[in-house]
Amino acid sequence: MPELRKDPITGRWVIISSDRGKRPAEFADQRTKKRGGFCPFCAGNERTTPHEVLAYRENGVPNGPDWRLRVVPNKFPALQIEGDLNKQGEGIFDKMNGLGAHEVIIESPDHNATLATLPGKAMEEVLWAYRDRMEDLKKDKRFQYTLIFKNEGLIAGATLEHSHSQLIALPIVPIQVQEEIDGCRKHYDLKERCIFCDIIRQEMQSRNRIVMETQSFIALAPFAPRFPFETWIMPKRHISCYACSTNDDFKDLAFLLQDTLRRLDKALSFPPYNYVIHTSPFKEEINDYYHWHIELMPKLTNVAGFEWGSGFYINPTPPEEAAKFLREMKL
Asked: Residues 102, 162, 164, 293: which is the catalytic one?
């Protein structure tokens, strides 16, 4: 059973997940790993994955072919869904069982598809699947938060080429999300406004860091980005939780997310990237102070000693230049 252990100094939780099978001798040079070969996510190989928990298909049978999108438990989960938390103290240290859900969203049966190249409707369905799984996992009272994330490319952490996203449901709120929430609460207590809404209003006035926008969503380079070409995507109107969005919202978001990814692909020659969805925790989904958003981060620089030691990030590309470059990119 994995364990969650709490750093007594920072309050940061760490997952000790020995079930994933990583031993010191197995940490080979990631750059030498070969790609290709058998793919368990391709159509026809459904028997090689755990049984699906969600699928979009017209016909066919569960765990069979003819699907457009599948969600399956991760075969090598970071956390285990069975059991209870069993919180314990070990002297000054706190720990609990590594309880959670770890799932894989297989975005297309096509091995060579990417989110940028999917048909628009298929991209919408990816966003619907995120929502549907969040809503289902919310029913489990052991969980407080669900993090959706995508690793695209080997350097970004993807171990399989076939395009997929991941979901981890947690019994605690991640510290980075909690820090955002705390900052938003302080701003709201002082000004009775959502700070993300304030950012959107100011950026729409200045136009300096906007990449693209639609009727309902905006993509922008944040004022203090950690990484070159880091881009945030968020609804223009105040929505505190991802699952509170409507089907019309997801249609608009699908267009803007794909447009942004295509601009990054053309501008940066198909960079590896990560994105995460930050949303309100289950217990406080509807609120006036927090604003759900996507943080999209191309992997163009390395986090090295100074960053790890200081918490500072060194970004060689001003966000105004990055936004202008992407905005003016001809697709």
From this structure: 164
